[in-house]
Amino acid sequence: MKYPFFPEIEPYRTFRLKVSDLHELYVEECGNPKGQPVVFLHGGPGAGLSKYHRRFFDPAHYRIVLFDQRGAGQSTPHAELRENTTWDLVEDIEKIRKNLDIKKWMVFGGSWGSTLALAYAQTYPEMVTSLVLRGIFLCRPEELNWFYQKGCDLIFPDLWEDYVRPIPVSERADMIKAYYQRLTSPDEKTRVEAARAWSGWEGSTIKLIPDPKTIETFSEDKMSTAIARIECHYFMNNSFFTEEDQLVKNVAKIRSIPTVIVHGRYDVVCPAKNAWDLHLAWPEAKLEIIGDAGHAADEPGILDALVRATESFKSAF
Predict the structure, then answer these.
(1) Where residue 221 falls among pLDDT bands split at 50, 70, 90?
(2) Which of helix, strand or coil describes residue 205?
(3) Is 53 an active-site residue?
(4) Environment class of residue 210 by beta-carbon count within 10 Å: exposed (0-12), middle (13-18) or buried (19+)?
(5) Alpha helix (H) ranges present in the chain?
(6) Marked catalytic residue, from 239, 277, 295, 298
(7) Which residue among 68, 153, 267, 304 is the active-site one?
(8) Which residues does 244 contact at the CB level (< 8 Å), separation at least 6?
(9) How far is CA 113 from the centre of its chain?
(10) Is the peptide bond before 45 cis (omega within 30 degrees of 0)?
């Protein structure tokens, strides 16, 4: 049986939470106000929420908490890089939990959301009842090199041309650095052109079969600016990790947390080796590799596995 999305729902509550003198987050709650708590962590960093993110969870059972991370979506200031690090986001999750008076919760995250979920769980393991992780991204140099420098271009040479076009040949030896210079340029036209190309590359490769609507969404000015600027900012700074392969090395801190890992076999944004490396270090976590999927959460096989995971973690509340 294939599990589809749960029906469309609207939040029963939205609010804004000031997490620093600079940053204010958009937060929403959906589903059952007295239900089992779960927090959804979106990708990017910088991608923001979509309405379908509410639909991985049974709304009759779960109290679903979603928020736009710093600089993303409806959070402000938009695309802001100051005070925007992995550890700022980890503390933001904890501030939201305390604000909502939630004792413990399930943490659900895909792509960059899986990175953030692991970082949060390793920092606050006692607050996490279970983890659902999709499209594992461990922020290692080899992963960034594959997608932004050399590797993925062998699969999508035509789309690669659109990605490299804004960067002169003389600067292409370090694409992330070259993009960072343009994404932080004082000239708006330069920033927008770079953002569209950077984010459009991701949107064009995210699914097994490229989807024009997804590409259009990723290329929209506001969303592409947040994705490109914030992602590039993180990648220029080693995603603010202090040691090599930090998330894998610290698996011992979360080994006892029930976890499901879902990954597309043909994910070119975050190759399946990422999930496999995590699973080798953490065999207690259940790994499901989807044979007919890429990176996107709404591809049928991945969606089915994610919904099965959230159903399997239902508990009394």
Answers:
(1) confident
(2) helix
(3) no
(4) middle
(5) 86-99, 112-123, 141-148, 157-164, 175-183, 188-205, 212-219, 221-236, 246-249, 272-281, 300-312
(6) 295
(7) 267
(8) 140
(9) 3
(10) yes
Active site residue 185: no
Q: In what order do the strands lie in the sheet with 36-41?
A: 13-18, 24-31, 62-67, 36-41, 105-110, 128-134, 259-264, 286-290
pLDDT in tens, 263-272: 999 999 999 9
Q: What is the pLDDT of residues 157-197, one digit of tens each?
A: 999 999 999 999 999 999 999 999 999 999 999 999 999 99
Write down the residue that tokens 């080798």 correspond to.
280
Answer yes or no: 267 catalytic: yes
83 burial (CB, 10 Å; 0-12 / 13-18 / 19+) is middle
Question: What is the Cα–Cα distance from 240 to 107, expressed in whole angstroms?
Answer: 21
CA distance 205 to 160: 10
Residue in 111, 114, 199, 204 annotated catalytic: 111
pLDDT score recorded for residue 219: 86
Which three-class secondary structure state does DSSP give residue 115? Answer: helix
Q: What is the residue whose two structure tokens read 């496999």?
A: 276
What is the DSSP-derived secondary structure letter of residue 256?
Answer: T
Q: What is residue 3's predicted lDDT score, i.e. its pLDDT?
A: 79
CA distance linking residue 7 with residue 10, whole number of Å: 10
pTM: 0.97
Residues 19/95, Cβ–Cβ less than 8 Å? yes
Handedness of CA 120, 5, 71, 209 (dihedral sign): positive
Instruction: Please report the pLDDT score of residue 1 as a whole number.
Output: 54
